[in-house]
Amino acid sequence: MTAGAYLRVIWALSGYDGMCRPWGYQAFVFFRGAFAGTLSPDAMNSRTDASLSSVQLAAPGVAGDLLVATFQRYADSDPLCRPSRRTLVRYRIDRIGSAPILVPVGALGIVGHVLLFVALTCVDSERRHFVGPEADWTASSGMDSRAAAAN
Predict the structure, then answer these.
(1) Sequence-ordered list of residues with C-beta below 8 angstroms from that of 40, at least 6 positions apart, any chain
(2) Cα–Cα distance between 135 and 144 in angstroms, integer?
(3) pTM here?
(4) How many domains in the chain?
(5) Which candidate, 94, 97, 88, 85, places its Cα nearest to that of 123?
(6) 3-state DSSP call for residue 139?
(7) What are the tens digits of pLDDT across the range 113-122?
(8) In 9-48, which positions are buried (b, 16+ CB within 10 angstroms) versus exposed (e)?
(9) Mean pLDDT of 98-106
């Protein structure tokens, strides 16, 4: 997946499960040919909580080369074929010196077709912990703690 010559997302996986679904997969982001980061802090498996299901790139040069990733969210009672929630995470490319770095800048939780929460106004990229007004959202959980407590 490429947005002009600037932003490229490459999906890779380590294998498949018994039903040929991706296992141990990740999405790697490159900006102007340099590695900028991954969309998830850990490798993902299909049909598990916080698994990446899609990536959409903005048009080249639009709003800081944003991309949006959609992660599947499963409640304990969800069947594996139908997650009840999704989290959309917006990313931008920042620079640390001359190196690009992928930074999550916003998240949006959706239950069915209903907006659940908006979070992420400040990012501490060193600790991969995202904070916002009354929010506590971590890269590993992918969910606002208020929304998690409500479920």
Answers:
(1) 26, 27, 50, 52, 71, 139
(2) 6
(3) 0.69
(4) 1
(5) 94
(6) coil
(7) 554 444 443 3
(8) beeeeeeeeeeeebbebbbebbbeeeebbbbbeeebbbbe
(9) 91
